[in-house]
UniProtKB/TrEMBL annotation:
Organism: Colwellia ponticola
Swiss-Prot/TrEMBL keywords: ATP-binding, Helicase, Hydrolase, Nucleotide-binding
Gene: dbpA
Segments forming domain DEAD-box RNA helicase Q: 10-38
SMART domains, per the entry: DEXDc, HELICc
Protein name: ATP-dependent RNA helicase DbpA
Matching InterPro entries: DbpA/CsdA_RNA-bd_dom, DEAD/DEAH_box_helicase_dom, DEAD/DEAH_RhlB, DEAD_box_RNA_helicase, Helicase_ATP-bd, Helicase_C-like, Nucleotide-bd_a/b_plait_sf, P-loop_NTPase
Length: 468
């Protein structure tokens, strides 16, 4: 009597991986694939270009790591795979995971090339050769420009946390690196979110990519709308404070119908200890740009704006929209609240209205084809509650593109030799003659010291904390 055993479609043994990898996976206790591994690995092993959208902790490193190691020819001592990561910490983490997955393969060499560490020893390591390079965009670009890193044999390119790399300002460096790799390579792109910039970069560097989405929950944009009726306009500011204190979130946009209201609301909240910025038509272009930049990099938790001023406002993770007044037009209302609830999260939209605005609520009911019933305001002590504060601070550097300053230079200056952690660095924006970098508030003083003492492009640039 013969028996047959069936292999689960989620088992690593179902993939046809090289035996060395399968044995090692078993010894590591890796039996079943995570959703992102199950959806991406079969396609990657066929040599297809793949875009994987999934949160940190989804198992994406093991997914592209196995595809990369399965494709590798160890006897061909050339750089065959390149993995680009946004920070040194992530690059180290990825290299560590790859070494763990490659334990069963003899004589494999994985090299990390990151900023914040001396350049010279890296040249020496490259001269000795490697199979796999894991690095950060700034340092990799430096090596390819100087001719110390040749990518002519790369047949697999991985962009890990691509959204974060673009957020940190590495688009130009990525373009420079990617165009030095062969056109017939396989490209894998992993990202927690999928903004327009990712779409355009994937279209320019990938061939018929397979798109795989794995959400931590239902990956749908959902917006929870709540309306609050107030007795009169005098109560409006008090109601706003109550809502901000009751719903403690990282980023809130408050829409006002007039510039006068924007200034009044922002001044009142600032006086009351909130982390707030104002955006309206009277601002100079430079002040407008700085305001948007600081809100986008989380150096302020609240932005008060008019509809006109907020045009082009592109914030991926906006938690809450508050309509200080109902918009004059129902379409504008829908556009306002549509700025929250992106990237699979549930967005919140609150709207305040008085008897005078009841007709606007009626128009909205017709437009939305829904009945709007007001909710009671939260009852809590305004004085007893902590004001939501921004977690980041913005540093302005008096040097930019014209001084040849790149995001990688800034990241290297901040994280090198007892510097701050790469995880403490947020968005980096490099303009013509200025650059801005967000750092966590706890790292601000050390970051300013590193920039004051350190050098970028062989010189020191003035740096200051950008405040109101």
């Amino acid at each position: 009597m013969s028996t047959t055993t069936t292999t689960s479609p989620l088992a690593f043994t179902s993939l046809g991986l090289k035996q060395d990898l399968v044995s090692n996976l078993s010894s590591l206790g890796y039996e079943q694939m995570t959703p992102i591994q199950a959806k991406t690995l079969p396609e990657m092993l066929k040599g297809k270009d793949v875009i994987g959208e999934g949160q940190t902790g989804s198992g994406k490193t093991a997914a592209f790591g196995l595809a990369l190691l399965n494709k590798l020819e160890v006897k061909r001592f050339r750089i065959q795979s390149l993995v680009i990561c946004p920070t040194r910490e992530l690059a180290d983490q990825v290299a560590k995971e790859l070494r763990k997955l490659a334990r069963g393969i003899h004589n494999i060499k994985i090299l990390t090339l990151c900023g914040g560490t001396p350049f010279g020893p890296q040249i020496g390591s490259l001269e000795h050769g490697a199979h796999i390079i894991v690095g950060t965009p700034g340092r990799l670009e430096e090596h390819v420009i100087k001719g110390t890193l040749s990518l002519e044999n790369v047949d697999l390119l991985v962009l890990d946390e691509a959204d974060r790399m673009l957020e940190m300002g590495f688009q130009a460096a990525l373009d420079n690196i990617v165009r030095r790799t062969p056109l017939d390579r396989q490209t894998l792109l992993f990202s927690a979110t999928f903004p327009e910039q990712i779409k355009s970069i994937s279209e320019s560097i990938m061939t018929d990519p397979i798109m795989v989405k794995v959400a931590s929950s239902e990956n749908k944009s959902t917006i929870s709308q709540t309306f609050f009726k107030i007795g009169n306009d005098e109560e409006r500011l008090d109601a706003l404070r109550l809502l901000l204190l009751d719903t403690q979130v990282e980023s809130t946009v408050i829409f006002c119908n007039t510039k006068k209201d924007v200034k009044q609301v922002a001044d009142s909240l600032h006086f009351d200890g909130f982390s707030v910025l104002a955006l309206h038509g009277d601002l100079e272009q430079r002040d407008r740009d700085q305001t948007l930049l600081r809100f986008a990099n989380k150096s302020a938790s609240i932005l008060v704006a008019t509809d006109v001023a907020a045009r082009g406002l592109d914030i991926d993770s906006l938690d809450l929209v508050i309509n200080f007044h109902i918009a004059r037009d129902s379409e504008v209302h829908v556009h306002r609240i549509g700025r929250t609830g992106r990237a699979g999260s549930t967005g919140l939209a609150y709207s305040l209205y008085s008897d005078k605005e009841s007709y606007k609520v009626g128009l909205l009911e017709d437009y939305l084809e829904a009945v709007i019933a007001p909710e009671p305001l939260p009852s809590l002590s305004v004085l007893a509650h902590q004001r939501p504060q921004a977690k980041m601070a913005t540093i302005q550097i008096d040097g930019g593109k014209k001084q040849k300053v790149r995001p990688g230079d800034i990241l290297g200056a901040l994280t090198g030799d007892n510097g701050i952690q790469g995880s403490q660095v947020g968005k980096i924006s490099v303009l013509d003659n200025k650059a801005y970098v967000a750092v966590t508030k706890s790292a601000l003083n050390l970051a300013l010291k590193k920039l004051a003492k350190g050098k970028m492009k062989g010189r020191t640039f003035n740096a200051r904390h950008l405040t109101n």
